[in-house]
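How it folds
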Amino acid sequence: MASTLTPALAAGINSEVFSGKSQKTSDMSAPRDNNGAYDLADLDGTPMNFGIAEDDDVGGRGNGANGGAWNDTPMSPRSPSSDGGDMDEYKDQGSPSNKRPGDSDKKSEGPDKTLRRLAQNREAARKSRLRKKAYVQQLESSRIRLQQLEQELQRARQQGVYHGDGAAGGGGTLPGLNSNPNPGAAQFDLEYGRWVEEHSRQTSELRTAVNQRSTDDELRTLVDQCLAHYDELFKLKSQAAKMDVFHLVSGMWKTPAERCFMWMGGFRPSEMLKIIIPQVEPLTEQQLMAICNLQQSSQQAEDALSQGMESLQQSLADTLSAGNMSASSNVANYMGQMAMAMGKLGTLESFVRQADSLRQQSLQQMHRTLNIRQSAKGFLAMADYHARLRALSSLWAARPRD
């Protein structure tokens, strides 16, 4: 009697069970076979074709007439090697030869796009730094203006020109002080304050070296530093003269006692030589003659510049006082006079520069005439003189007013 196939057993049957014989495909579409067994295709729901040997029946053991039993040997599944072709085909789908043409272009464009982004980021960072720098400079300029106003207010209070009750006609204004100071003048005042601090430090080092009788080489180094420091001051004053020559000539960056002895925005070279000579004695005859000639030539140059300044002042007075003094009488004439006066004021800047050049040449000539120890004593004498003038201003401002 033929056995009935279960769906699970039918699913495991394949053509590899009947190896070694010629196979043929038989149609299993009939509902039942000769032995009355159910058709496997009906049981599984899907038509299936089985290869059956011509000389054997489905039992695989004996003949179909004897109703041989099914072979109990389990059927082995398909080996992995049988699917090798499919796996190779699946792997080939990911090979470079089967990739889309645009993939390589996208990868090649990747580094270029990254470089462009980095360049854009650097440019944005640079612009940000420039904006920050401009903002910091604006803050620094505002701070300098505020500091300048505070300094002028303090000086005005020391001079007694601050009228809090508005007696000056301005309701607490500061006579003679600019309500909107020039940023260049404020910057010069700040730089000059730093110059004074550095000058005090260098003077202290030079004084220590002289008192300890240091070697000439050590003194020469310190003296050269002092001379170079004065050169730096003359450069600062030259720049300030371009910005606001009146501020430089008025001496508002100096103490009141120093302003009393100012000449064209600084000290008189001839007067400074008179202060230095007693401090560097004894002098040789040759040195004494050279110092006297320097003092005489400096005096002559000072007189020439002073005469030029007097002529400039007289010329400005004549220009401003020409014609009718009423500005409303003839506006065109008034504006013409102002234009002429403005043109003549350019000469004032030239005089200040010539005066500073005379001071610088006098210091250099004195340094060449004296030996290294005498030069050191000469610079100390200059520093002590100006320090005493500043101390005198402080004492005068702090004096009791009964």
Summary: The CA atoms of residues 115 and 121 lie 10 Å apart.
